[in-house]
Each structure stands twice: as structure tokens, then as C-alpha cells.
Amino acid sequence: MDENMDQKRLIVKEIIQARELIKELQAQLNSSSFSGQDLITRILCSVETFLSMLERVKMKNESSPESPLGYVDLFPGGSRKRKGIVRWTEQVRASAQTGLEGPLDDGYDWRKYGQKDILGAKHPRGYYKCSHRNGQGCLAMKQVQRSELDSSIFNVTYIGKHSCIETSELLSEQYSPIKQEHDQRRRPNYHQEQREDKSFEETYINFQTSSVQVAKDKDKQFESFPSFSIYSTTSMQPNVGNCSETKDNHFFPPSVKPEIHSPSLSPSPSPSPSPSPIFISTPTASESNYKMNHIEGYNIGEDLLQTTADSHDTKDQMIISPNVSATSFVNNSCSNLMDSSWDWDFPIDFSPPQF
DNA sequence: CACATTTGACCGTT
DNA sequence: AACGGTCAAATGTG
């Protein structure tokens, strides 16, 4: 467990180091006499190291039959929900086609079997079973609830995997290029197969301080933990220029690369209270749309924390060591300390559910 | 008529 | 007891 703690520290340290370096870059760019190349290289080195870490997490997940890439099992080990049933949450924006009221076409046939007003929620939660439950014995279910923050967004929690063969799939095998991504989702067992689809090998991890409120007392140290998101894809080359980051530590893949605005280039710099020379706009919701489905940020954040809180050996976690980094930066080149002995079995667990 | 949705009742868990 | 999840009768739809 001491080893696990060290690994956690390294990961946290790495991102914090990146953040600090970026802050330093901001300050130095303000002085205008500094090109910032050295710092940029170091920052990107840290980011690359972290992405490599994520890659390792993902590779580890690939051994799971139930945890497709880009979807983090919310309850590893089935600690609080029924064991042996995968459960994950996606966030789907109502499109112009489906309208605000849905239904949300995720490629499967669902039959609504209930609706419930949820305490403290503005919108009721709908309960769905796969339409092929009777015919094919498919046990997949989902719950749909409109987001509190954005009523055009639906939080969709999937419970269990489909064992059915979908009728629409049997009827048509024709996919238009434009519909390709959506139709990927229509494939039977899409979620299970996604991890095998190289074009979809993406990992999106999102921690947010706003979700810390649900953490239990022994996880209080998370309250000072900064918000950050990482969006990784194996198609991302070592060319760190593909990575973009906001001042809130949000990374995006090239496909949703945010637009970068520099006050020196922009006519009217944002009147931010604290000087921030680089402003990066996040992708619009419409750009994200199904891209954002990979993880439901708030839920992932809180569920990771809750999952962590369920572990028995996590009371003393996430204490940030100031002296450890996985990255060494020598002569403008980046190397890190990760090797085959790296063990990812630390309590913030991406490992597959245990049956 | 067959099937889907709605909705209040019921049940298990906390 | 309160809450979330499910059931099933009533109702709606094609």
C-alpha cells in the first residue's frame, strides 16, 4: 500500500507540477522578454507523462471484458451496487433531431417501466429496460435524468450490458459517413466493443471540486484538490502540440481542440481579475455532443470519490509529496520513471469490476 | 388487439 | 421513515 500511495502522489504531483509550470509560464510571458520555450517543453513533458500514465490505466482496463475504453466503471468491485453488473454514466445533449424532450436515441430499443421524482432534483428520473428483455432475455437497463445544470443535457446511467441483437442492426448495415460516429453507437454491444475500436480509444477523466461535496469525511483532503480534466486518446502522437489546456487544467484531444485566444492578438482581452495571458475557450456543447458522452463529469468525479471512500485502505490518500515526480527533465528531453513495475492498483481504481 | 407509456403502489435498503 | 427502484394496472397509441 505504501507503494500505491507513492504512485498516487506521483500522478497528482505530475499534474500539479504542470499547473505550476503553466502559471510560471503565464508570469514569464507577461514580462514579454521571455519566449517560454523551455517551460513549454517541460510542461508538455509533464502532460505527456500523465497521458502515458493514463495509457497504462487504459491498457490495464483493456483486460476487462466489462470496462470499455473511455468508460470508467463507477463501482469497481461492486461495492455499493449489485455485484457483477457494470454501470456507467454518459452525458448526452439533446440534439436538434431528438428535441429537448428526447427520446435519446442511443442505438438501442428501450422500454420505459417507471418514472420517479428524485429528492432535490428538478426533473424526474426515467427508468428503462431493454425492449428485448422478454424476447432475448437482455438485462440491460438505463436511467435517464435531465441535468440540473443544463436542462438540455441528459445524464444517462447504463446498468448492465446488452446481450441482445438489435433489430435495427439486423435490418440495415448501411452507414453514411456523416452518421458514422453515431452509427458506431448503434452497433450491438457497441459499448463493449468500443475498447477494441482503435478510432475510439479515448480516455476522459474529469475530477471537479464541485463534486467534492459528496465525499465522505475521511476524504476531506480532496477539498483542496484542484479541478482538472484529462482527455486522452491513443491516436494522440507524442507531438505535445496536440494537447491543449485551459487555465482550469482541461485537456482536449485534437478533435475537440479548444480555440486559443491571446490577449495580445485579441482586440479586447478578458477583464479577468487575475492576469491570465492565455485564454482557451472550451468546446461548445454542440461540438462536444456525443464526444462528451464518454464520461459524465460530475458523476465520474463524485463516484470516483465515493468509490474511493468505499475502500478500506484510502484514509490517508492523496497527500501530495513535494519531492517526488515521475518526470525527469534533462537537456530539453523528457523521461519518466514509469516502467513495467508500475502498479496501477491504487485505490482510485480504474480496474474492472470483480465477479 | 398488441404493445408502449404513465403512474400510484409496493418493496428493499439505508 | 424516507428514499430510490420496480411492479403492474390503467391508459394511450397505431
TrEMBL record:
Compositionally skewed regions (Basic and acidic residues) per UniProt: 179-201
Keywords for this protein: DNA-binding, Nucleus, Transcription, Transcription regulation
InterPro entries, alphabetized: WRKY_dom, WRKY_dom_sf, WRKY_plant
Residue spans of biased composition, Pro residues class: 266-276
Major location (coarse): nucleus
GO molecular function, one term: transcription cis-regulatory region binding
Highest rank taxon of the organism: Eukaryota
Protein name: WRKY domain-containing protein
Lineage of origin: Eukaryota, Viridiplantae, Streptophyta, Embryophyta, Tracheophyta
